[in-house]
Amino acid sequence: xxxxxxxxxxxxxxxxxxxxxxxxxxLLHGLMAHSMAYRxxxxxxxxxxxxxxxxxxxHGRDQTFRSQMLGPRVDGMVGWLEQLLAAIDAERIHLVGxxxxxxxxxxxxxxxxxxxxxxxxxxxxxxxxxGVPRWTHRVVEKLPFRLAKxxxxxxxxxxxxxIQWRKSRMTSMEINSYVEPFRDPERLRFxxxxxxxxxxxxxxxxxxEQIDHPTLIIWGDKDHFLRLETGKVLQSMIxxxxxxxxxxxGHCPMEDSPHEFSRILDRxxxx
Length: 271
Prior knowledge:
Elements: E1 2-5, E2 10-17, E3 24-28, H1 42-45, E4 50-54, H2 74-88, E5 93-98, H3 100-109, E6 118-124, H4 136-142, H5 145-151, H6 154-164, H7 172-179, H8 185-200, E7 215-220, H9 228-237, E8 242-246, H10 253-256, H11 258-270
Parallel strand pairs: 3-4, 3-5, 5-6, 6-7, 7-8
Antiparallel strand pairs: 1-2, 2-4
Helix pairs in contact: 2-3, 4-8
C-alpha cells in the first residue's frame, strides 16, 4: 500500500494484514532490510492484530527518500515516523522496531509528545550502542560505492547471513527480494549515508530514562552485532520495562525464532 506523506510530497509504502482487527501493530525493520523481514510472524500475529509493516526511507518500495525535505540522517527519521503514524490513523498502536527501526522508535519514545497514539513500545536488538570507534563513520563515508553495491548484492547478503541469523537461512527468492530495491543507485546511496550517520554517534543511550511507555526489550543471546549487555543496561534505565532473551537466536529474532517472538510480543501486548 502507498500513502502520500504530506510533509514530504512522496509516498510511504507498507504491507498490511489483519485489517479486520481493532488493535494495530506497526513493525519497523532494520538497516538494509525491508518489510519482508517480518514475513515469518505475519501468519501468527495477523489473526489477532492489524499489522502495518512499512519500508524505512530508501528501503523496499519507499518513495519518501526522494523528497528534498528528508535527508539521510537518523534524527530525521524520527520526524518521518511521526508522519507515518499520523498517516496510519489508528487510535491505539503498538510500536515494534528492530535494529535501526528500534533506534528510531527509541529516539521518538524519549520525546513523550511524539508518540501520543502509541500504547506500547517494543525494542528488538536496538542499535543504540554499536560498540565501534567514533572514527568509524569516516571509514564508512569513504567506502567506494562499488563496495556498497557488493554488500547489497546476493553474494554480499550470503557472506554476512551467518552473522545476522543463527538458525534461519534465506532462499534465493528471499535473497533477491532483499537486494532488488538496492539496484536503484539512489536508494543505495541514501542507505549508505544513513549507515554513515548511524556510526557517527555509536552510543545513543542518553535519555532512556525519559521513556514512560510500557516497554518490551527482546534480544538474542547469539547476537554478534549488538552486545546483550546493552539490553540489560537499557532495562535498568527504562522504568518497569521487560527484558526477554531468546536462547540460540541471533540479531534477527523475528526470523530466527518467529514463533517465540510472536508469543512474547502477544503476551506483552495483552498484558
